[in-house]
Specification:
Blueprint (H helix, E strand, L loop, with lengths): L1 H10 L3 H21 L4 H29 L3 H6 L19 H10 L3 H9 L11 H13 L2 H9 L5 H9 L5 H4 L1 E8 L2 E8 L7 H11 L8 H11 L3 H4 L7 H8 L3 H8 L5 H7 L1 H13 L3 H9 L9 H9 L1
Antiparallel strand pairs: 1-2
Amino acid sequence: ASAAAMADARTAPGHLHDLAAVRVTKDEGLSFSILKCLSLAEARRLWRVQRVFSRVLGDKVIPLLALYERNWGIVSQYMGFPDEPRSRSHRCFEYNFDTMCIEAVLHLDFECLRLLARRGYDFAAVQAQPRLLAFAREALRAGRLERLSALRAMDFDFGAVQADCAAAGEIAETLQLDRAVSVDLLGSRLAFRCPALDCTGRGFVEQQLAKLCASKEALFKVPFVLAAFLRAGASAACLVRPDGCGYLLLLALASESFSFVYLLVKEAIHLEAVLLRYRTQILQLIHRALKHRRFVTLDLLAFCGYAFRSGDAEVQRQFDER
């Protein structure tokens, strides 16, 4: 009976936590036994060392290790965003934003680029970086549209590199051919054709999406056409901008489609600027969602990282009441 009771105790909720608590208590007891042998002066010197150790760990080591391991959640806590109050326990760490930007492009790390855009980083600072120029040249030779799209999303001008590659006949054949994009919808077919390199830019794709958005009857076609263009090599990072197709995010939120929102957000670099550009419309969406208890919209906004600002007190109050 006693053995069964012990087995039940081991499997009972909280048993592992209790063991951990006992272990910590024993560690504290051992530490106390050792430290009480010190003199007061020695204990005070040790306390100063411990405080220095904690400060160095928290202010320098943790933010640097977070950068090495690409833990952008922790990195963001040390970047010092001007629109957010910073915790007293976190000081700003002096990251090299140019290096962060270059490494993010080379690894196609859109989350890091989004952090830099949110911080107000000027991407023009790396326009002449040899590593990015070499990255563009290699992408043109290998026909890597996604790499060229990442460069264009941050307005990197690789026109001179493209001209040199064209003169040397080094541009990949796949980039010199037209891309045919077709979408079948309810018995009708939408067909588009454009040069492959145009898919990495904003002009052609933006024009086609704008035509569809101009007609209320054609709005349901937008996510399908967008998905087709993305599969053909277009980049949401180039489209979701306050001066581009950022309004598509409003359409996706209003349609309560996670798939549509995900397509737009997963590689968006200027997402914060888009949310700010359409702040009034988003507040209207939130108000209607609360009124009609359409909480899917709120979940999608949370997925986008939307947060209330100081001037949104009334909507914040309604949100809290719900």
